[in-house]
Amino acid sequence: SSGINAEYGGEKIVDTSSVLIMQKGKSGDKTVMRVELPDGFIPGSHALKLVAVGDILGEAVAGISSLIQLPSGCGEQNMHKIAINVFSANYIKSLYDELPENLDYNIRHNLNI
């Protein structure tokens, strides 16, 4: 039986870049971004992944609502949890015109307001 000896050409190149686009209140505007492929790339071997996040903190605060917890423990632990609850609640409130019911309940219940 005869086999085929295949050798892959080139090297894998991963390029990451971040762009902050501020267009508050300008729905419908478009932003054009250009992607330049390196010289000598192998046709069909390229891929592009685009991630768009709606606020500047983006992925850094994904799941921030899980930080809102009912304080329990000693005084220092309670103060720490309350501080995180207040910060998280203020940030979450800035994202929504009207809070989803479960978030509103967690904030009110865990901060006792």
Gist of the model:
By secondary structure, the chain is mainly α. The chain is built from 2 helices and no strands.
Task: Give structural attributes.
single chain; 113 residues; mainly alpha; 2 helices
What does this structure look like?
This protein is mainly alpha-helical and 113 residues long. It is 28% helix and 0% strand. The chain is built from two helices and no strands. The chain has helices spanning 75-95, 101-111.
Order of helices and strands: HH
User: DSSP helix count?
Assistant: 2
Residue share in β-strands: under 5%
Q: Write down the overall geometry.
A: elongated
Total strand segments: 0
The radius of gyration is 24 Å
| Largest sheet composition | none
Distance from N terminus to C terminus (CA atoms, Å) equals 78 Å
- As residue ranges, the low-confidence spans are none
List the helices and strands and how they pair.
Blueprint: H1 75-95, H2 101-111
